[in-house]
Amino acid sequence: MIQNERLFLLKKGECNEKGAYVLYWMQQSQRSRYNHALEYALGEANRRSLPLLVLFVVSRDYLGAGRRHYRFLLEGIEQLEVDLADRGIGFLLKIGDPPGIVAEFAADAALVVFDTGYTRLQRSWRKAAAAGSFCAPVMEVESDLVVPVRTASGKEEYSAATIRRKITPLLFRFMQPLKRQSAKIDSTALAGRADGLDSKAAEELLRFSQPEVEPVSWIHGGSVEAHRRLDAFITSGTLERFHEERNDPSKEGLSCMSPYLHYGQISALEIALRASEHPGPGCEAFLEELIIRRELAFNFVFYNRFYDSFEALPRWAREDLEAHEGDKREVLYDDAQLEEAKTHDPYWNAAQRELTHKGKMHGYMRMYWGKKILEWSASPREAFERALRLNDRYSLDGRDPNGYTGVAWCFGKHDRPWASRPVFGKIRYMNDRGLERKFDIASYVKQVQKSCE
């Protein structure tokens, strides 16, 4: 079922009667399962008795992404091509400027379909690509959120509490399975004649042009691996214990879905439906993060044009941090000391090493990590930029609404004023004693050391 709220007409255009195919430019939703944009495009192709061509364009230096990120993406693309071929759908991989390449293939399309992008760059791509599609109408179909971003709210929300009140009544309508269709016309030969790349050739072409952030070996991209990890999360009992263990960095209590969601290699809707088959406190806590908290992050990026800068913070937080900018810091670290995890704090160092070596960081430690960067930087603006730069450079799910929101939260976004203290002002404070009191934090440090050997 594809709800009307998922459909957004970008350009009315005129029906291109000479169109040889329906074109789906896949960018955000990099999967064949539970992809509303793909199913909409396929349905329109079948209705017109035309083949469907799926186009994916790899942009060089996407928001500073490194080899680590491109390897994960291309591992997913390799699996995606197989999945689409099994359904008789042609897939074409290109490297270059997305709007220009999309416009080139749109010239021969009867209809062009985009999936929804949320960041500034993604949205500018879609605007330019739609403008370059001179004849064919252009439809955007949203598939990466359970409740579409515009439907959930028409404005930036203040907190999880405010967006929860809007999303919860809508879940019954949008938590619906999506039926997979069959292609009436096999289009794999059509893609083969368009001179595309395979994922390994693309990686070789990109190999020397990306920052030297080495790929990780503990996790691999692709829908098969995403579903394997989801199955393990559910069947191992981790979902059942999620409400108890999610915030404990010394426990393996997380789903590891974040990188796959970031690249669109698995659907949030499919995850939510699978988790809902196992009701209980763990499921409730998991759905709160998967739906409410995640959609709050996308709401922030979609409606706040300053989402990746200090200006995105609430006025009270900005003014309070700036008022305390001249407060004495007990210690200041330079960029290299932070990046190389050479601080006096073993817990922070472990979190930073986890990020640089594994491309991830436990969610609770990410909060502590960001707070300490604020404490160890000469100004709050410098701290914000450092945290965002490190997260985007090393995290597999960097350059993402969740990442932008996670960094901003450390500086007061989606939070409230607390008791005032030096440097932090009324921003929520965290310290090492809190970690020691709540968790076996020494065990976390040992686990990180072992994983980085």
TrEMBL record:
PROSITE patterns: DNA_PHOTOLYASES_2_1, PHR_CRY_ALPHA_BETA. It comes from the Bacteria. GO terms for molecular function: deoxyribodipyrimidine photo-lyase activity; DNA binding. Its EC number is 4.1.99.3. Residues 20-149 form the Photolyase/cryptochrome alpha/beta domain. Keywords: DNA damage, DNA repair, DNA-binding, FAD, Flavoprotein, Lyase. Its cofactor is (6R)-5,10-methylene-5,6,7,8-tetrahydrofolate; FAD. Coiled coil: none annotated. One of its GO terms (biological process) is photoreactive repair. It catalyses: cyclobutadipyrimidine (in DNA) = 2 pyrimidine residues (in DNA). Belongs to the DNA photolyase class-2 family. PANTHER family: DEOXYRIBODIPYRIMIDINE PHOTO-LYASE (PTHR10211:SF0), DEOXYRIBODIPYRIMIDINE PHOTOLYASE (PTHR10211). This is Deoxyribodipyrimidine photo-lyase. It comes from Sediminispirochaeta smaragdinae (strain DSM 11293 / JCM 15392 / SEBR 4228) (Spirochaeta smaragdinae). The lineage of its organism: Bacteria, Pseudomonadati, Spirochaetota, Spirochaetia, Spirochaetales.
